[in-house]
Specification:
five-stranded antiparallel beta sheet; alpha+beta; globular; Uridine Diphospho-n-acetylenolpyruvylglucosamine Reductase, domain 2; about 325 residues; Uridine Diphospho-n-acetylenolpyruvylglucosamine Reductase, domain 3; four-stranded antiparallel beta sheet; binds iron/sulfur cluster
């Protein structure tokens, strides 16, 4: 580990200012991913700006939406009365992620900023375009069982590891960020990016910008939603495939639908065509199977992850059945 400066910021403005004019400075809050990355020499910031004292921990109802501060702990969000009542999908997704100890340290902003768990990314002896642009991708021809089937590029086939983000993209959340030029909002679906020719870039944050909060608009999905995660172990494992499913139903008729997948792409993967196919239909296994087929169109497997092409639609169907109370 190299030496680095350490600085504390008590306001959003001070935090953003602390990054300006410091090349390769990073924010630190819970540190559940960043400290690992530093210990393994994947990243070597010259300065850490500790933002734990910035007052961004509130979870509150505002006009037509719930705002969750970027520094709210994952465990607190999952257990918060407003979230359980209005967005149980998010609560379920958070509880499916990591271990209780990590959820007690990890923040909402940090969860969004966590990096892929691709083994080649974490092994500095092996090529990885995300860690070292231009060095190659060890996973393309290597052990790629955990890797993406949607939106890949020749440069990178990694997946985003978050469960929380899969629920947030399904819930049409918005990210409020602050930077030297002021605040702006980014639709959650546009916050994370596909690898393309720049796999080293995970998201669309600009230089020196900081996540302030995540906003979830009110919706009618609280009665019929389900987060389903399939993984190698019962806990503390990343998703092979996960699905966030939410329905707004009138009896058995689907009025609105939201679907997103995790463990399949470089970003939380929203399934808008499959959502459209569900609207106006009667909730049934057959309806859900048809939507799942549409959802998987365009998926491409690599040597060791072809099982995701079968697992994916099955998890979509099961998540939708649970959401619709058909189990
Ligand atoms: Fe690196 Fe991406 Fe290839 Fe993994 S899949 S080795 S993160 S470039």
């Amino acid at each position: 580990m190299i030496q680095f400066q350490y600085e504390r910021a008590a306001t959003t403005k001070a935090a953003v200012s602390a990054l300006v004019n410091s090349s390769n400075a990073k924010f630190i809050a819970g540190g559940t991913n960043l400290v690992d990355l530093m210990k393994r020499n994947i990243t070597a910031p010259t300065k850490l700006v500790d933002i734990n004292q910035v007052p961004l921990k509130d979870i509150q109802q505002q006009n037509g939406k719930i705002s969750i501060g970027a520094l709210a702990l994952n465990s607190r969000v999952a257990e918060h009365k407003l979230i359980i009542e209005k967005h149980p999908l998010l609560s379920q997704a958070l509880n499916a992620g990591a271990s209780p100890q990590i959820r007690n340290m990890a923040t909402v902003g940090g969860n969004m900023m966590q990096r892929t768990r691709c083994h080649y990314f974490y092994d500095t002896a092996l090529p990885c375009n995300k860690r070292e642009p231009g060095s190659g991708c060890g996973a393309l021809e290597g052990l790629n069982r955990m890797h993406a089937v949607f939106g890949t590029s020749e440069q990178c086939i990694a997946v985003h590891p978050s469960d929380m983000c899969v629920a947030l993209v399904a819930l049409d959340a918005t990210v409020l960020v602050a930077g030297p030029k002021g605040e702006r909002r980014i639709p959650f679906e546009e916050f994370h990016r596909l690898p393309g020719k720049q796999p080293e870039k995970d998201n669309t944050l600009q230089n020196n910008e900081m996540i302030v909060s995540v906003e979830i608009p009110d919706n009618a999905f609280s009665k019929n939603s389900h987060y389903m995660k399939v993984r190698d172990r019962a806990s503390y494992a990343f998703a092979l495939v996960s699905v966030a499913a939410a329905l707004n139903m009138d009896g058995k008729i689907i009025k609105e639908a939201r679907l997103a997948m995790g463990g399949v792409a470089h970003k939380p993967w929203r399934l808008k065509e499959a959502e459209k196919a569900l609207i106006g239909k009667t909730a049934s296994e057959e309806t859900f199977r048809q939507a799942a087929e549409i959802a998987m169109q365009g998926a491409k497997a690599y040597k060791y992850n072809a099982f995701k092409l079968k697992l994916g639609p099955n998890v979509i169907v099961e998540a939708l059945k649970n959401a619709a109370d058909l189990v």
